[in-house]
Structures are given as C-alpha cells and as structure tokens.
C-alpha cells in the first residue's frame, strides 16, 4: 500500500475592474444616468453578461447586466438632493469581486424669480390695466 500525501492547490480568480460615471444632464428633470464598464483587471478584455449592482448611499439600488461591450447603464429617478453612487461586481466562479470608486450626483430644482409690473396702479373705474411679468432663472 502506498503512502498518501496531502497536496494543497490554490485556485485564484481573475481580477476585475468595474468603472462608474454619471452621464451629463440631458435636461430631463429628476433623472441621473449612471453608467460604467466591467473589465478583466489590467486588460482591455470586457466582461459580457455579468451582473453589476448599483449602490446608492451604500444600499443596493439596482441590479444591471453588462452588454456585449461590457457596459452597463442605469437611470435613477431622483428627488431634490445629493446622492452617492458606487458599482459593485459581486464576482462569480471565475472572476473576483470589485467595487468602483464613489461618485456623487446632485439633482436640484432650479430657482426662479418672478417680477410683475402693473400699470397704472391707480385710477378711476373702469380702469384698463397692463400686467407685465418676467420669469428669470436664479442660476
């Protein structure tokens, strides 16, 4: 009978890199567009069909899947406020998990001012009045 030996095998997963960014504001009120990509770490090899989690304020906000180019998109409907976003690739049987850096998006209503002029302000009845108004953005 032969002797038995214990052999230690170390299996490593391929490293990954998940990116995140916020698309430029397109004029749609209350919308913040989150986008990014998933790669094998240190390469330009994209990972297709992989699950990416979108964390909003540290909590799971959405789960998306990378497309054939390794990219993902998520449209966040925002109330007025400031939001932190982070992408998380949880890993799988072949690939190690990764977190993106935090990015911050802000959505706020644009302030406005309304000025109204009434002319004339006094007179005898019947009085014809002209009302002019100017609405301006405060930014």
What report would you give on this structure?
With 139 residues, the protein is mainly β. It has a domain at 16-107: Sandwich (Immunoglobulin-like), CATH 2.60.40.10. Helices cover 0% and strands 48% of the residues. It is built from no helices and eleven strands. It has strands spanning 16-18, 21-22, 31-40, 51-56, 59-65, 71-77, 81-89, 98-99, 103-107, 112-119, 130-137. The strands form three sheets. Strands 4, 5, 7, 8 and 9 form a five-stranded antiparallel β-sheet that branches. Strands 1, 2, 3 and 6 form a four-stranded antiparallel β-sheet that branches. A two-stranded antiparallel sheet has the order 10-11. The mean pLDDT is 87.
Task: Give a short synopsis of this structure.
With 139 residues, the protein is mainly beta. Helix content is 0%, strand content 48%.
Count of DSSP E strands? 11
Which word captures the global form?
rod-shaped
- Rg over CA atoms: 28 Å
Helix content: under 10%
Strand content: over 45%
Discrete helix count: 0
Helices and strands, in N-to-C order?
EEEEEEEEEEE
In the CATH hierarchy, what is the class of the domain at 16-107? Mainly Beta
Mean pLDDT over the full residue set: 87
The biggest beta sheet reads: 5 strands, antiparallel
What is the CATH H-level superfamily of the domain at 16-107? Immunoglobulins
Unreliable runs, pLDDT <50, ≥5 residues? none
Q: What is the first-to-last residue Cα distance?
A: 86 Å
CATH topology term of the domain at 16-107:
Immunoglobulin-like
The structure class reads: mainly beta
Looking at the overall shape, the CATH architecture of the domain at 16-107 is Sandwich
């Amino acid at each position: 009978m032969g002797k038995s030996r214990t052999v230690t095998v170390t299996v490593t997963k391929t490293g990954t890199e998940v990116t995140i960014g916020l698309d430029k504001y397109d004029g749609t009120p209350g919308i913040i567009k989150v986008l990014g990509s998933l790669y094998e770490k240190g390469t330009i090899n994209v990972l297709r069909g992989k699950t990416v989690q979108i964390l909003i304020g540290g909590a799971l906000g959405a789960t998306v899947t990378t497309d054939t180019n390794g990219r993902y998109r998520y449209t966040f409907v925002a109330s007025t406020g400031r939001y932190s976003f982070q992408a998380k690739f949880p890993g799988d049987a072949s690939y190690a998990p990764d977190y993106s850096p935090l990015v911050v998006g802000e959505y706020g209503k644009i302030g406005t001012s309304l000025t109204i002029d009434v002319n004339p302000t006094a007179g005898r009845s019947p009085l014809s009045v002209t009302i002019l108004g100017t609405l301006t953005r405060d930014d």
